[in-house]
Design a protein that fits this description.
Elements: H1 3-14, H2 46-53, H3 61-74, H4 77-88, H5 90-98, H6 102-121
Length: 125
Amino acid sequence: MARFPALLGLMVLTAACSGANEPPATSPFLPASLEASTAPQFASGKISNACMAHRRKAASQARCGCIQAVANRTLTISEQARGVRFFEEPDLAQAIRTSDASGNEQFWATWSRFADLAARTCEGT
């Protein structure tokens, strides 16, 4: 049962992009210039590779590439590398999410904002 919240966070990245095809809402956490395009973009990188390698039901090259494009705009390289570990170790996401360490709290807030933006941006891909 402890794995459920961690898996839920990962599913946001790969499976929660369904439903109506609406433009993304403006995020209170990012400048509007980062969200200006309503069309998903594509990129390759660590997150895209991890997304495809772990074969989630909703994973596709287009969706994983879109998620990577959002990651490139919102996460540092080290944040991306840290987040890739969630695909391999889902329990790690839960441990970081529930940690009281300020570095983990800050990372989880950043990762959550990224996941929300990726879900909105990559909807329908």
